[in-house]
Amino acid sequence: MNCIRDRQWNRAPWTLALLTTVCAELTFTAIAVPFTWLLVPLLMVMYGAGVLVLREATVRVGGTWPSLALLAVAYQLAEDGLGLQALTSPRMYGAADWGFRALGVNWTYWESQIGVHVVLSVLVPITITNLLFPEQRARPYLSNHGLAGAGALAVLGVFGLHYLISATEDPGYQTPWGFTMLFVALIAGLGVVALVVFPRRGVTGHVRGARSAPCPAVVGVVSGYLTMAFLTTLLPLGLGSTMLLGDLMSPVQRLVVGLMTALPFGWLVLRWQTAPQWGDRHQVWLIGGILVSHTAFMLPSSLTAALVGSAAIVAQVYLLAHLGKHLQRREAAVLNPGDEHTLSQPE
Fold first, then answer.
1. Is the pLDDT of residue 224 over 50?
2. How far is Cα 52 from Cα 56, in angstroms, rounded to an integer?
3. Which end of the chain is more exposed for a tag (fewer CB within 10 A), N or C?
4. What is the pLDDT of residue 206?
């Protein structure tokens, strides 16, 4: 039994590192840009090690989802602000052309990437890992030496983005020192609030007075719709050159509408999670709606993207359905023979 636990203990961090890379990039950017697969080692270092550090730090101080969300924003600043330099570059990804740029910052790109990284890079992979390894949900995965090593790899990943991707996509550009210092200060400030202020004040991710949650299928449809609404409001379809609804909204209006989509979505999920019947199946459908919509957004890129993306969606649905069956079997296994009472939903 101890051997089984040890093997599970070792699998959890590797699973999280892989899921983070898959959810953030391989089911999104790699659909339209197959070259992304060649960057998997760098992405594993940057995404996997980075999110492992966020998860470990949060667990060690007794933090909850709000702490993770704030750390995810800090993580996004490190990646897009210090690594890719896309938050301030006037040429990177053409973000200055299709979004709102003012005071030297690509605000539309920034808002879109906060949403993508908070949810797809951090919260979704950690939720799936928690479902796979529930016994370790509130425990550290790594030793102190392991955490230090993961931190060093995360920093190395940021430098890799800077000197490999940014230098290739936007050669010669350097983020102004003022912005670099601002990003570092914001990262440090968000870290203090997430790891010191929130845990001491007992801040949780729950909303009081929640009503009953809808059935899992409805959760999946709603999460898929709101994910697509957020992405199509702020990003060109398939990361190409066409914005949905064209000029019907100005860049500033898109910023507001994107915010009005993301915040109610987060509030809705927090409210649903407080319902007594909220359980693992709801979480699987929630994740499924987000991931499928995230990949479907890339389908208009090209015929190749449509074919590869469709195959990726089929794989996601199959694997999540398999995960759902695995969770049902695990729940049934803990029932005593002849027990007529249903097991209460996991937290």
1. yes
2. 6
3. N
4. 55
- Residue showing tokens 């499924």: 288
In degrees and rounded to multiples of 5, residue 232 shows phi and psi of -70, -20
Check if the beta carbon of residue 83 is closer than 8 Å to that of residue 46. yes
Q: How far is CA 316 from CA 25, 117, 296, 311, 331, in A?
A: 14, 19, 11, 9, 22
Query: Are 52 and 13 in contact, with CB atoms under 8 Å apart?
Result: yes
Of the candidate ranges 105-109, 154-158, 312-316, the one whose mean pLDDT is the lowest:
154-158
**Percent of the chain residues past pLDDT 90, beyond the cut:** 40
Q: How many helices (H) and strands (E) does the chain have?
A: 16, 2
pLDDT for the residue 1: 41
**pLDDT digits 0-9 by tens, 35-74:** 777 777 777 787 888 999 999 999 998 888 889 999 999 9
d(CA 217, CA 238): 26
Q: 102 has which bridge partners? A: 105
User: Distance between CA atoms of 137 and 324, rounded to whole angstroms?
Assistant: 18
Helix (H, G, I), strand (E, B) or coil at 221: helix
Both tokens of 275, joined, read 């319902």
CB 312 within 8 A of CB 48: no
DSSP string covering 309-334, please? HHHHHHHHHHHHHHHHHHHHHHHHHT
Distance between CA 221 and CA 40 in Å, rounded? Answer: 31
Please tell me the distance from the alpha carbon of residue 285 to that of residue 244, in angstroms, as a whole number. Answer: 26
Instruction: Please report, for residues 51, 183, 240, 319, 332, the alpha-carbon distance to residue 20 in angstroms, rounded to integers and kept in the order given.
Output: 7, 23, 24, 16, 29
- pLDDT > 70 fraction of the chain, expressed in percent and rounded: 90
pLDDT band at 7 (very low <50, low <70, confident <90, very high): very low
The single-letter code of the amino acid at 243 is M
Write out the H or E segment, with its range, that includes residue 106.
strand 105-106
DSSP string, 126-177: HHHHHHH-GGGTTS-SS-HHHHHHHHHHHHHHHHHIIIIIIHHHSTT----H
Average pLDDT over residues 274-292: 91
